[in-house]
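Quick one, T. Sequence first:
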Amino acid sequence: MLRAILKRILGRFRRDELMASPGRLLVGLGNPGAEYHGTRHNVGFDVIDRIVELSRSQLDVNKDNAISGSGRYQGRTFVAAKPLSYMNRSGSVVKKLLNRHRIDVDSVLIIVDDLNIPFGSVRIRQAGGAGGHNGLQDIIDELGTDRFARLRVGVGDDFGRGQQVDHVLSRFDDSEMEKLDEIVNHAARGALTFVSRGVTDAMNRFNLKPESE
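Structure tokens:
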């Protein structure tokens, strides 16, 4: 009898301890300001907003040059954040968030746009280089490692030579907008699976290629 009571108390303590300490950090990259709202470069912000919606959490903290909030999904806690620095200066914000919440680098997921993969692609990787993405490169430089997970959302690779900047700062066309909500939802569910089950399961279940591939 006593052993059973102690086992229940210990189990409850472990559950409470798990819920009290955010285990994952989800950071969507983008540029602040109304002029960037809805652009391809800000799809990371869109995914964070969907994560907040699906998990019924809130971004209610404005600190360390980011808006952030704690959430809970399938028994696991996380912090979701949108840096208020510009895209290319995201590294210091991510570092501050990790330090403030005492989260390890291997428990962070960075969500970014990617113009090197077709529109509609969702690709999750456990680690890797920046792939030409300046926001990712700044995070790698600040953290001193590229051993962190990232979720890339394809924003289209149909642009002329030297038109990369114009492309990522443009808005999605009408045909893309018809599919964007589903893509953002898929990416958000992948990020939440990273929270609840880890990067390998998220990769296996949510890496997505467009139907045309």
